[in-house]
From TrEMBL:
Keywords: Cell membrane, Membrane, Transmembrane, Transmembrane helix. The gene is rfbE. Pfam families: Polysacc_synt. The chain crosses the membrane at residues 41-62, 82-103, 123-146, 158-178, 184-204, 268-286, 306-327, 339-363, 375-394, 429-448, 454-474. It comes from Polynucleobacter yangtzensis. This is O-antigen transporter. It is a multi-pass membrane protein. GO terms for cellular component: plasma membrane. InterPro entries: Poly_Biosynth_Transport, Polysacc_synth. It is found in: Cell membrane.
């Protein structure tokens, strides 16, 4: 197995335990905190994710620049100084982000969200404490960026496992002591602190910072900001569009409705494990090869796109065709009735957006973060208008439809950019794109809630077709022969 595939395998494996933890603990967390407090907890998770934008794109820039320095054989001292400059900048930005959250949370909680009077005081205290975690979150992104640039994916994968499991386990353990939002948030802060310490140890253990240099270099900061400038806009707008549905649901339909939306969302969005792992490995490779070896870049792009799609599709089929069944078993029949359409549309959107993440990594790895930022700028206002209209027409299912439409437009824009950067790179995507269109077309019938017998037949036929396509792709890529050789070798031993 090549180093690229090993790194992807490590990234994927790091998410198995968090996925299992979420599946096991989600019902227990909802039961412990109740629907309204659980809805607020999901917003706390969203706040942590959104306020990580205060790194202003420096984490991505740090990965790109460290990879670039290493490919150009820059001195270890220059690389160490670049990293220290990035770290100090990110600490300062994280403190600023925490201050903004601390100042804004009373306004958001009191005036924009529908929260019962009984939870107002606890919510204000909890979100005030949450602001303390933002500097750690921002600097953690920088630490991970360095490990990614050094291709130390084993270390990042193990630490991400701790964070992923802790995100669910910590609030559950806190509920055994005191089932309040404040105790849940304190447990999240402790989890983030442990994660930060582990990343910090991994970076210093890599010995990339053993060389004595200045703590800060203004010219290197300018270099980082030059790359991250447009990426900052993407980092602000992209999470805004990612999390705005939750806040608009809480504002328009109430915090309880957010629970019906976020519950399945947290499961379905775990599918992003696959494209996130693949794109995270490919991004530094795109940065190194897009000019020196465009043919290899095109090969990586095609494989990343196609394997993302093929890995996600069977799980997508099971999630959408049996949404009512697994939601009823996992949570309750009432929850399943409220969330079934959300599952169907979000899963289709995740399949589309997952392939877009590979193309996004290619565009940004080619140094065109300005294009992706302009695309997000063009999307944000139409998306917010569409989201409001869809919520008004179809309730929480409308939010999923709006998101699905937006990510489809996002993919189209990224494909246009890919063609502008290198037409040959776009040509290799013809087969993967037709495969994506076929996959989406096969999933859409799941929106209509047929009987279990019909859904079983549909799923069986679709997965049989998928298996035939998978065998053909593996054979064309030479992977089928490698798998057969491995099986024969195992049998002989």
């Amino acid at each position: 197995m090549s180093s690229v595939k090993k790194n992807i395998a490590w990234s994927l494996s790091s998410n198995v335990s968090p996925l299992l933890a979420g599946l096991i603990l989600f019902p227990k967390i909802i039961a412990a905190y109740g629907l309204e407090q659980f809805g607020l907890l999901t917003l706390a998770w969203a706040f942590i994710g959104y306020f990580s934008l205060f790194d202003l794109g420096l984490s991505r820039a740090l990965t790109q620049k460290v990879s670039d320095y290493m490919s150009k054989d820059k001195s270890p001292q220059e690389i160490a100084q670049l990293i220290r400059t990035g770290f100090i900048s990110m600490w300062l930005l994280g403190i600023l982000g925490g201050l903004v959250l601390w100042l804004c949370s009373p306004l958001i909680l009191n005036h924009f969200l529908k929260i019962s009077d009984a939870l107002q005081a606890d919510s204000l205290q909890a979100f005030g404490l949450l602001a303390l975690s933002i500097p750690l979150v921002v600097h953690t992104a920088g630490l991970r960026a360095v490990l990614d640039a050094l291709h130390l994916f084993k270390s990042t994968s193990l630490i991400r496992t701790v964070l992923g499991v802790g995100t669910f386990l910590a609030p559950y353990l806190a509920s055994l002591v005191s089932p309040t939002l404040t105790s849940a948030v304190i447990s999240l802060i402790i989890t983030r602190l442990i994660t930060w310490l582990l990343y910090l140890y991994a970076v210093y253990h890599s010995k990339i910072l053993i060389f004595k240099t200045k703590l800060f270099n203004l010219e290197q900061l300018k270099s980082l900001l030059q790359f991250s400038g447009w990426m900052t806009i993407s980092n602000i707008i992209s999470p805004l569009m990612e999390y705005m549905d939750r806040f608009m649901i809480a504002s328009i339909l109430g915090v309880v409705a957010t629970s019906y939306y976020v519950g399945p969302t947290e499961v379905i969005f775990k599918l992003f494990i696959i494209p996130g792992s693949i794109a995270g490995v490919l991004f530094p490779l795109f940065s190194k090869t897009w000019q020196k070896d465009p043919i290899h870049t095109a090969h990586l792009l095609k494989q990343g796109f196609l394997y993302t799609l093929l890995l996600l599709f069977p799980a997508s089929v099971l999630l959408v065709f049996f949404a009512t069944d697994w939601l009823s078993l996992w949570l309750t029949p009432e929850f399943a009735e409220q969330a079934r359409l959300v599952v169907c549309w979000l899963t289709i959107g995740v399949l589309i957006n997952s392939t877009a993440q590979i193309v996004f990594a290619k565009v940004q790895g080619s140094g065109r973060s300005d294009w992706t930022a302009k695309l997000h700028l063009a999307e944000v206002l139409p998306y917010l208008g569409l989201l409001y209209a869809c919520l008004y027409w179809w309730g929480i299912a409308g939010a999923a439809v709006a998101w699905c439409i937006r990510v489809s437009i996002d993919l189209i824009g990224l494909l246009v950019f890919t063609k502008k950067i290198n037409p040959d790179n776009f040509k290799v995507l013809h087969l993967p794109l037709w495969t994506l269109l076929l996959s989406v077309g096969l999933l859409i019938p799941s929106v209509f809630n047929a009987s279990l017998q019909i859904r079983l037949i549909e799923a069986f036929l679709i997965l049989t077709m998928y298996l035939l396509i998978l065998i053909k792709v593996l054979k064309a890529d030479g992977m089928l022969e490698k798998i057969m050789q491995a099986l024969r070798s195992k049998r002989s031993t």
